[in-house]
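Entry for the shared binder. Reason: the reviewer on the internal report wants the predicted structure included alongside the sequence.
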Amino acid sequence: MVVLPGLMLAIMLAMLDNMIVGTAMPRIVGELGGLAHLSWVVTAYVLGTTVSTPIWGKIGDLYGRKAIFIASIVIFMIGSVLCGMAGSELLGGPDMGMGQLIAFRALQGLGGGGLMVNAMAIIGDLVPPRERGQYQGIMAGVMSLAMIAGPLVGGFITDNLDWRWAFYVNLPVGAVALVVLALKLKLPKRKAEHRIDWTGAVLLSVGIVALVLITTWGGNQYDWNSPQIIGLAVLAVVMLAAFVPVERRAAEPIMPLGLFRNRNFTLISLVGFLLGFAMFGAINFLPLYQQTVQGASATNSGLLLLPMMAASMVVSLFIGRAITRTGKYKIYPVLGGVVMAIGMWLLSLQGVDTPSWQTGVFIAVLGLGMGFLMQTTLLIAQNSVEQKDLGVASSAATFFRSIGGSFGVSLFGAVFNSRLTAGLAEKLGPQGAQLASGGGQIDPAALQRLPAPVRTGFLEALASSISGVFWWAIFFAVAVPVLAFFIKEIPLRGSAPSEADAEAKQPMPAFD
């Protein structure tokens, strides 16, 4: 209990950051420019987190989790400082700011990848399995609190302070976590021989980065049949094809391929991928719509995300209790996929004149769908494998959700940029498309200074582009209930009340 606050602060760091930055993004773009690269600020962080997570776990086994956990916090804090300094005069001015911010966010993500995985592993070291559930419940509460508080904190910082404090706010939280963990964390010492699958890690990382670059640049910065995109596609295929035999021969593979022989695990991994796809896409573009089109302040746009977060949290808690009571779970991902698709469809109907309360209803529907899926995807993944593979299954399920987020933000960003450029050219003429170019600076205050016809045309194009993102997301959301329908409902281990009752009623053996 003494160490727990430090672990929770580290988890809070990882969860809060993306929420705060998402709310502050319109102001960041307003100062640094580079609207076309907006999605990369999120993608760089998620990519850094995704590719580093399995490596952090292996290094922690080799060199001790305490030192590695502290190192990940330090890297995260250094990345936060550099993100806050991006585009400052000290680093070359605003012209270089967006590129610097993307690079520093990748560094921040490398540190962030070690926060969650090491916190969960440390709890596993300190707490016996029988008592672990209550601590994981506290972690789930902290994650939900971060998802709700993040947009509010980001909005307050953006409205009342410089946007750079969206990154500097990590420093006092990280410093407290470092002090608590350095002084109080005592882990059992154990020797274990492990070999890090560096070859597999490199092949997987390069393949993932190539795929994300294809979704980001294809049809936007480069034509789909350009040498750059074709070259990236070849690189991705070669790296991922080489990854398969390497993992089969590795003593301790980064991602054991044998897990995918289990139908339930494969299906729920795909469902988790699509969930990350939708979740990150929604959070990334909603603040831009609310602040720029609807004219909400950054704080209010954070408040307007509360219906989605609250609905997701409440449904997730309810579903967790229902599954424990009945042992049935298959229906929930099916329902979640249907509700999430309805939420995406509703959000695709938004335009310039959509009121804020209506957007709140739409995102609450999306949150309901996410609540049906968030808890059940991990539960089904864990229940689909043997007890000895529980940790690997959890890590793989988290990986697919994260990589789904990477692809979602990248693909949605490409759709957004393409539609915005075309929409501005249609409404404002060829020169209107320059507002969305790499140097375009879009700020709610600056929009008010534009001539009324130009401002109206821009807002219409922006609203149409964002609704187009959600229209595309419908196709991915619809695939969730289709995949979930084929999941086989395997009884949950140790979850049937009748079995527990039967054991409790057995007579106790007599002893002399």
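Summary line for the report: Residues 256-501 form a domain with the Growth Hormone; Chain: A; fold (CATH 1.20.1250.20).
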